[in-house]
Design brief:
two-stranded antiparallel ribbon; globular; single chain; 70% helix
């Protein structure tokens, strides 16, 4: 009877998770349909560069922004993904929405599997629900942005890591490195995850065994990234490891106007249109331009050390803030999400969006803290996730801060938030039983 009961509960949880994934997918398509006029075109709300490169790929021009000019500004992963979506479904909003909603739901499935491996099926079910219906990931599934794809690869790597760690199959550390390398080709910040795993392996396994595992993992990363680095060297005649935008972003995130823009909720991309913003001299080579950006950051720090420290602390606060930064109103695109675009029950869509994000984010953080607190002493993997949160945050604070860049971490939080919710329900049930016994 106990066995039959467990089988029944297991089947029930699986069906609930499938229902959660289906509803999450449907919700993403509905949101994408509502904002479809804002998804494509010259006023693209997202990364127009990715769209243009993907468009050229579908036409057979290769990975270029301008025909005949090799593209290195962004990593190539998302442009390739986007071009495949265009080829399969056509170049319109549904191609973006369907493909990204699909991998977003795969991400929810990975959240379930990871939480199940770390805790149990019920914790996995709650974690999948929190991930599937999280408003900001729902929104980003309809945008031409690399957030959804990067989150998926991050969760694949974390789920695979937990599997390798629990099963002790050290021979497949190479595959983990390959997954991290693929993530690097979507966003270079995957290197922060790699660094976190490297430090954790050395601490937990010791120098000898940790170095062996790290070496195998590093070979996997290099096997994916180095061919792209070699392509960049051949195409550009200079060493560009993954992308060439790093120093430009660092300069945008560390200058005398950065704090003003962050405080006002304006995208740092708008700095280039500000007459006060110092731009590099014309005629510089790409190498000299990156050196110029670096020199400006160093000069800003040397001349405004205290202001720079305040800026870093402000970026830290805004990185984990319950308010969206930059505000969507200042990030380009059409007016589909603005105050005048419509209202629901007397409230503007902007107001509803902000409230939904803030409430869901606060709940997620509170539950994840509860989950960490109840697992940190029993699960070494929890320390790894905390280390990833720390290193990833540090990298972004030093370079560029925005809510969009933090969103992949929220999916990691949902894994522990599911366990936190389960523990909260357990304590409530125990309290109810205690109260009944005392009456």
């Amino acid at each position: 009877m106990i066995s039959d009961h467990r089988v029944h509960n297991t089947a029930l949880v699986r069906w609930i998770v499938l229902a959660i994934i289906y509803l999450g997918f449907a919700l993403r398509i509905v949101v994408a349909a509502y904002s479809s006029s804002d998804a494509m075109g010259p006023a693209l709300r997202g990364d127009l560069l990715h769209h243009q490169v993907a468009h050229n790929l579908t036409l057979g021009h290769g990975l270029v922004l301008e025909i005949g000019v090799p593209y290195t500004f962004n990593p190539p992963g998302y442009a390739f993904f986007l071009s495949c979506s265009y080829i399969l479904f056509g170049q319109h909003w549904l191609a973006v929405a369907f493909s990204q909603a699909a991998i977003s739901m795969l991400s929810a499935g990975l959240v379930y599997l990871t939480a199940k491996k770390l805790f149990n099926r019920k914790a996995g079910m709650f974690a999948a629900a929190l991930s599937s219906f999280y408003p900001y990931t729902v929104y980003h599934s309809s945008r031409v942005m690399d957030t959804t794809l990067f989150t998926f690869i991050l969760l694949v790597a974390i789920c695979f890591f937990v599997h390798v760690w629990q099963n002790g199959d050290w021979k497949i550390w190479l595959l983990l490195g390959i997954l991290l390398g693929l993530g690097c080709l979507v966003r270079t910040t995957m290197l922060a995850v790699f660094i976190s795993i490297a430090v954790w392996l050395i601490i937990v396994l010791g120098w000898k065994r940790g170095a062996v595992a790290l070496t195998i993992c590093s070979l996997g990363v290099m096997s994916v990234v180095l061919p792209w680095t070699f392509r960049n060297f051949v195409a550009k005649g200079e060493l560009i490891f993954i992308s060439s935008k790093g120093m430009a972003n660092t300069y945008m995130g560390n200058n005398k106007l950065t704090m003003e823009y962050i405080d006002q909720g304006i995208s740092l991309d708008k700095l280039w249109q500000d007459e006060r913003f110092k731009v590099p001299p014309k005629g510089l080579s790409s190498v000299d331009e990156r050196q110029w950006f670096f020199s400006q950051v160093v000069d800003f720090f040397n001349k405004n050390t205290n202001d720079h420290y305040r800026l870093l602390s402000r970026k830290l606060i805004f990185f984990w803030s319950p308010n969206i930064n930059p505000s969507i109103e200042y990030s380009g695109g059409s007016n589909v999400w603005l105050e005048e675009s419509g209202a629901l029950f007397g409230f503007s869509f902007t107001y509803i969006r902000d409230i939904a994000y803030t409430v869901s984010y606060v709940i997620l953080v509170v539950l994840s803290v509860l989950g960490f607190a109840n697992s940190i002493s029993a699960r070494r993997e929890a320390w790894l996730v905390l280390l990833i949160l720390l290193v990833y945050t540090l990298v972004n604070v030093l370079v560029w801060t925005s809510t969009r860049l933090r969103i992949p971490l929220d999916s990691l939080l949902s894994i522990f938030a599911g366990f936190g919710l389960l523990r909260a329900l357990y304590w409530r049930r125990v309290s109810e039983y205690s109260l009944r016994d005392s009456i």
